[in-house]
Write a structure and sequence with these properties.
single chain, alpha+beta, two-stranded antiparallel sheet, 1 helix, 18% strand
Length: 65
């Protein structure tokens, strides 16, 4: 029973990591095309911090092989 529960937790963690990877990949691809502003609110003081993400490198879709 304990082994099955551990297996389910590992599978759930794997799905979460896949979701995070997808979000980060989409964000990076967008930043490569145009700038993105990320706004973060501090949970303690409520201050808002804005970050502008830009790129000066163009990505290539050409394969190396």
């Amino acid at each position: 029973m304990e082994e099955e529960q551990l297996k389910k937790r590992i599978e759930a963690l794997d799905r979460r990591l896949d979701n995070i990877d997808s979000v980060v990949t989409a964000l990076v691809e967008r930043v490569m095309r145009q700038s993105v502003t990320v706004e973060v609110t501090c949970p303690k003081c409520g201050s808002v911090v804005q970050m502008l993400l830009t790129s000066s490198v163009k990505s290539s879709t050409k394969g190396t092989g």
